[in-house]
Design brief:
65% helix; single chain; mainly alpha; 3 helices; 110 residues
């Protein structure tokens, strides 16, 4: 990396690792939530997904991404976002905060 000097690298605190994990969880969930909503709608749809069948509510992924906001509003793509966001934040904190320390213990133990 340009400008990176390993002799002057500083170790992050557990709080900084946790904050980075929480931020990554927030960003990831906010971007992926519409895909999760569409996936759940397809799972709940009893009719087969097909352009040929007229009784199918959603005929393709693109059709679902067009139909849901048209019928329910753009915000509907983020239904259930708050509980999922809390899960992503806690998972991100746990994963990022403790992973560097656990790999250090494993390497030192060898």
């Amino acid at each position: 990396m340009v400008g990176y000097d390993p002799n002057h690298a500083r170790e992050l605190t557990k709080f900084q690792y946790g904050l980075a994990g929480a931020a990554s969880g927030v960003i990831t969930r906010a971007i992926c939530q519409p895909f999760d909503v569409v996936k759940i709608r397809f799972q709940l749809q009893l009719e087969p997904i097909s352009h040929k069948l007229s009784e199918s509510k959603y005929k393709s992924i693109v059709h679902a991404f067009r139909t849901i906001p048209t019928e329910e509003g753009l915000v509907s793509l983020w239904k259930g976002h708050i509980p999922a966001q809390l899960l992503s934040i806690s998972y991100g904190i746990a994963q990022v905060q403790y992973r560097p320390h656990s790999s250090f213990v494993i390497v030192k133990g060898q």
